[in-house]
Amino acid sequence: MLEIKNLHARIEEKEILKGLDLTIPTGEVHAIMGPNGSGKSTLAYVLAGNENYEVTEGSVKWNGEEILDMEPDERAATGVFLAFQYPMEIPGVATMTFLRTAVNAVRKARGMEEYSTPEFMKVVREKANELQINPEMLKRPLNVGFSGGEKKRNEILQMSLLEPSLCVLDETDSGLDIDALRIVAEGVNALRSEKRSMLVITHYQRLLNYIVPDRVHVMADGKVVRSGDADLALELEETGYAEFGGKAA
Amino acid sequence: MDLPVQQFRSEIEQELLDSFAALHDALPGAQNDRVAKLRSDAMERYASLGLPHRRIEAWKYTDLRARLGEAYPMVRPSGRPIDQAEIEKGLGPRVANLDSYRVVIAEGEFRSELSDVQALKEAGAELRSLAETLEHLPDDLGPLLAETGEQRSGFEAARPTGRSGAGPDPIIALNMALMTGGAVLRLGDGVSLDKPVHVIHLDGAGEPVSSVTRLIVVTGKGASLDLIESYAGLGGRGLQRNALTQIVAGADSHIEHTKIQREEDEAVHLSNWLLTLHENVRYNGFQYTNGGELARNDVRVLFEGEGTVMNFSAASLLKSRQHADTTMVIEHLVPHCTSRELYKAVLDDESRGVFQAKVIVARDAQKTDGKQMGQALLLSEGAEFDTKPELEIFADDVVCGHGATSGQIDEDLLFYLEARGIPEPQARALLVQAFVGEALEQIDREPLRDALTGVTADWLGVKLD
Ligand SMILES: Nc1ncnc2c1ncn2[C@@H]1O[C@H](COP(=O)(O)OP(=O)(O)OP(=O)(O)O)[C@@H](O)[C@H]1O
Ligand SMILES: [Mg+2]
After folding, report:
1. What residue intervals traverse the membrane (chain A) (predicted)?
2. Which domain holds residue A91?
3. pLDDT tens across A179-234, in order?
């Protein structure tokens, strides 16, 4: 279970999260929607441990354990995964090398046997295939020259390889064409399980047709201002965010 | 002999003159009048120039006169056996075990018993000792030995000679005057070797010494050569090295050329590459600098034939107070040639990297395409990178450009890697490797590229699988 209590965070003296509360029971998928600039990505980064953001108050517990004191790699080892809104390009690091380094680091930290290179290749090929990622792409430097959609698919590939227990997806649907959206959503749904919690940040109700959430939360000005079931997303599609003091979406 | 009187001479400058006076009768080629003359001319050049200092433009960031305290005595070849274990210790197993034709120059002397002279002969290449060659100097090598490093072109604008430090070079002069050994390698027309030729230089087993060697390579028309030069110490207490490599690439030849410098912490490494490229040559050069207290890599390239493509890259990995300077002069004398330089330095602690590249395009060298890039990754506050590109273009239809960057590890990239479970030290190392990797990618031959990728990982203290 993810329990966020009274979370305050700031960047360069500017407070962005202003007392955010959110609970996601194990096995549930929750969606967060909200106007641009309301702090959704900030929340995602804070969960993953980005040091640019300073947490000034509050707590974040994952399965009862405070994660705010952990380094990003330790959080990854305990099961936190963030699919980035803007995945980074790293020239000079082959995607395959990166994937193997990450997976083996996490396996080691979890006390599991590291994969041998052939074992790993086999696992990657299978998962890449499911996400319709051309294995040739994995030889290229990480995300360099990948299209927007390819980058997002690569994020989901990483997610499925790292087998996290808390998946945070920050606008994974943006930039995807209709077919890619379906493939990515299927990839995400395949990871849905009663042991895994997911937080899906999105602007579009359409994604939630594929990944049907247990709860939907509206975030505005650094706080969760309203929560409801999957129908809330449909309602927002109609009304926009005006009632939350935000700009119309 | 008569040396011009100079008023101020530092102690070391005088010591070098004295050592020539004491040695010149015993140096190889002393019985050959042409060689003896070339040597004394070179010493006179040196005597009038002195050691380079920071007021000479090309040595602005590397004040050799101030940095060199004393001249170490010339190494005395002991002829003692050198086994594989010792070579591995000096170069590291990755480089020492590269599959190659081996040439060993130890303690300033060509070691035929450790060199694959016969195997090279069977493969169509002629390998000789430099000392032996100097006794009966072949005509074609005379002009090579007379090279001073002076800029050949670019005076169209009627500037004073040597204003940009491209006058005769004192380090080249010292090499000519004092060289004791080395090798001469010739590939006939159309000869293509099945393995690289690895010229291993080993020096400095005990007391501090200086070692002055030369490697001369001449390739025939359409020949193809992979040449690796490596430099290591033998665990001694100090080394001053002056190593010079001359390559004359015949028309249509293809040369892959790499220098690997891994000397001990106290070593001073002065290196000169003098490259003369004829028409339609493909030349791909690389320098890996990873050892010594001071390394100066001078690279001079002359384009003498049309349609030639030269690609040069360098990676310098430095820490503590290491200082490495790569200074290039690239002269396009003829049209339709391409030159590329990519320099990368990883600078930790208080190390300092220098990259200077001057591209000269003579009036006739139309359609020249010349680009250079110098980049440094600073791993500490105390590290410093100095770079100075220079373009002197006298032709009007050319494409030339340069760029430089210097910065620290990108924290956003670091976070991305850490968020995927990679611990910070490993994530940093991966980013450094990625940075260096862009230069290493320029090495065409996979075993060599893998070996240097491994050396880089060793330097960073990471395990490769
Ligand atoms: N490095 C930074 N420096 C200053 N302000 C920042 C920085 N990063 C984010 N912000 C500000 O924090 C606020 C929240 O940004 P955040 O990216 O979390 O919003 P978001 O809800 O994800 O928006 P979007 O829907 O556009 O992705 C914005 O006002 C943004 O300008
Ligand atoms: Mg966002």
Report:
1. none
2. 2-244
3. 889 988 998 999 999 999 999 999 988 899 999 999 999 999 999 999 999 999 99
CATH number of the domain to which A130 belongs: 3.40.50.300
Q: Do residue B416 and residue A75 have CB atoms under 8 angstroms apart?
A: no
Closest atom, ligand 1, to C-alpha of A38: 21
ipTM of the complex: 0.95
pLDDT at B161: 38
* DSSP output for B419-454: HTT--HHHHHHHHHHHHHHHHHTT---HHHHHHHHH
Predicted local confidence at residue B159, as pLDDT? 40
Angle between helices B33-49 and B170-178 (to 10 degrees): 150
Residue B1 forms contact with A (CB below 8 Å): no
Percentage of residues in chain A having pLDDT higher than 70 = 98
Report which of B175, B134, B105 is spatially closest to residue B33, judged by C-alpha positions. Answer: B134
Q: Residues of A numbered 158-217 whose beta carbons fall under 8 angstroms of chain B's beta carbons: which are they? A: 158, 162
Which ligand lies nearest the alpha carbon of A38? 1
pLDDT at A246 (0 to 100) = 52
Q: What's CA A154's distance to the chain center, in Å? A: 13
Does any domain span residue A87? yes
Tell if the CB–CB gap between B419 and A51 is shorter than 8 Å: no
Pick the ligand that lies closest to the CA of residue B411.
1
Element (H, E) at B402: strand B399-407
The Cα–Cα gap between B211 and B242 comes to 6
Q: Is residue A197 part of a domain?
A: yes
* Residue ID of nearest Cα to ligand 1 atom 27: A36
Whether A249 maps to a domain, the answer reads: no
Q: Residues with Cβ < 8 Å from B395, sequence gap 6 or more?
A: B332, B335, B361, B362, B363, B364, B365, B366, B368
Closest CA to B456 of B226, B320, B289, B257: B289
Q: What is the number of domains present in chain A?
A: 1
Is A67 a domain residue? yes
Looking at residue B158, its pLDDT comes to 39
The rounded Å distance from CA A43 to ligand 1 centre is 10
Asked if residue A16 has its Cβ within 6 Å of ligand 1, the reply is yes
Angle, helices B11-23/B170-178, rounded to nearest 10 degrees: 30
CA distance B63 to A51: 42
B288 Cα distance to chain centroid: 9
- In chain B, which stretches have pLDDT less than 50? 1, 156-165
**A78 C-alpha to ligand 2 centroid (Å):** 24
> pLDDT (tens digit, 9 = 90+) per residue, A110-161?
999 999 999 999 999 999 998 889 989 999 999 999 998 899 999 999 999 9
